Amino acid sequence: MRNKIMTGALALALGTLGVVGTAGAANADACPSTKLCAYAQTNYNGTPGQVQYNNDNLLQYYSFANAASVSNSGTQCSVTIYSGTGGTGSSVVIPRGYGIGDLSGTAFYHSVASDYWC
């Protein structure tokens, strides 16, 4: 079961960045260990696109170019996702074991464009 990422401080930080959304429980079995997963449906539904390591252009992958939710099943560190390729645009840090169940209304909705770990 994924943890909730949205806390008061994080919600304030996301609101300051113009990122608005809510977090929910993710299906931990759907996202394999060591991976960042993106789903084309909210609440971690559907088949996840999976990546690991740093990626400058995730938009080449359907689930990241159409992301509606995202989760971090990494085993060692947080992952920062960006709305632009090459680590540009809006960003948010997702601690390991956490996810964002609904990216609607955020810069990441249909655009988790790059990621960097730790």
Structure write-up:
The chain has helices at 8-16, 62-65; strands spanning 3-4, 36-39, 49-51, 69-72, 79-82, 91-94, 98-100, 114-117. The longest helix has 9 residues, at 8-16. It is globular and about 25 Å long. The chain has a single domain, classed as Sandwich (Gamma-B Crystallin, domain 1). Mean pLDDT is 84; it is low at 6-29. With 118 residues, it is an alpha+beta fold. The two termini are 22 Å apart.
What fold name goes in the CATH topology slot? Gamma-B Crystallin, domain 1
Enumerate the spans where pLDDT stays under 50 for 5 or more consecutive residues: 6-29
CATH superfamily: Crystallins
- Distance N terminus to C terminus? 22 Å
What are the secondary-structure elements, in order, as H or E? EHEEHEEEEE
Approximate strand percentage: 15-25%
Anisotropy-based shape: globular
CATH secondary-structure class? Mainly Beta
Mean pLDDT: 84
User: What's the number of structural domains?
Assistant: 1
The main pleated sheet reads as: 5 strands, mixed
The quaternary structure here is single chain
How many extended strands? 8
- CATH architecture field: Sandwich
What topology, given as strand order, has the largest sheet?
1-7-4-2-3
Count of helices? 2
Rg over CA atoms: 12 Å
What structural class results from the helix and strand content? alpha+beta
Percent in helix: 10-25%
